[in-house]
Amino acid sequence: MSDHDSGQGPLHRLRDMSPAWFTLAMATGTLSNAFWQLDLKPLSALFYWLNWGIYPLLVALLMIRALRFPQALSRDLLDPRQIFTFFTLVAASCVFGVQLSYRGWLESATTLLVVAGVLWLVLGYVSFGVLAFRNDEQRADVTHGGWLLWIVATQSVVILATQLFHLDGESSALMALLLFGLWGFGVMWYAIFITIFFNRISFVPLHQRDINPVYWVVMGSAAISVDAGAELLSLLPRTSVWQSAGGLLEAAVLILWIWSSWLIPTLLMLDGWKHLIKREPLNFRPTVWASVFPVAMYALATARLASAEHFRLLHDMALVVGGLATLAWLVSVAGLMIWLKRQWYQRRSSA
């Protein structure tokens, strides 16, 4: 069945479904994991069960889209503006896997890790090929920070794998090396992409349409690198070689946390410029969850760092940021409900 033929059915709207919807599962799952780390188990359970409905639903809708509208899916996969949004599937799978691992569902979490790892590997080479062979100055745009979803997906794999495989002991030295290398790979690409990002906003005229929720991933990718590094740090083998590597890792984690902290006022300033100075109205779009996820991830990373460094002030800060992330999640849900209501009225009026 072609895209054209199937486009007139009740599932017509799935033709243009953005993979960015998976940021909803990322934000919800990360809030659950943050509250788990902060020992607020009832709140963690609430977002856990919400994600049990959100993540499987999004996977099912994406599979239906792949079957009913394969040409539309292929078009997005070959578009330099869209290809990196597919990494949200990898990140959402790993975040959900971490939720499951906390509650003892280790086999299910391992399955998600394998699926996410394969997707990460395939999408990594596909996205690199798309940038190399199908990109041009008119189509590429990294101001929104979407390219950094690759880093988010990379560190998500590190976090879930570290949860599942205890790295202490001689037999797991190879796993420690692989995960440490994967974490370093993500940080390396972050350094490359963040340079391009700041070059873009500093030396190319900036318009309010360039500022959208996805550019919060610039902070979120640094925060998740902190979380992955802190998680990995506590599980490295206790040998002289790894102790040296651990010192480097600990320094990098602290620097990345400071950097992500500095980015928050910077991103708020850009939002203020768009909505207060340029008076761009607030409108709901699927990518709004890409701004909720980084705030939730910053809360989780801060909580993880507080636990690793036994720093009470950071724990209190994580509680405050977790509350703000929850508020942002609720506001986004309200925006989603209003958007769905408008979509329903539009369908009725055009019927």
From TrEMBL:
GO function terms (MF aspect): sulfite transmembrane transporter activity
Source organism: Kushneria phosphatilytica
Coiled-coil features, chain-numbered ranges: none
CDD domains: TDT_like_1
Keyword annotations of the record: Cell membrane, Membrane, Transmembrane, Transmembrane helix, Transport
Membrane topology reported for the UniProt record: Multi-pass membrane protein
Cross-referenced PANTHER family: PTHR31686, SULFITE EFFLUX PUMP SSU1
Family: Belongs to the tellurite-resistance/dicarboxylate transporter (TDT) family.
GO cellular component: plasma membrane
Protein name: Uncharacterized protein
Upper classification of the organism: Bacteria, Pseudomonadati, Pseudomonadota, Gammaproteobacteria, Oceanospirillales
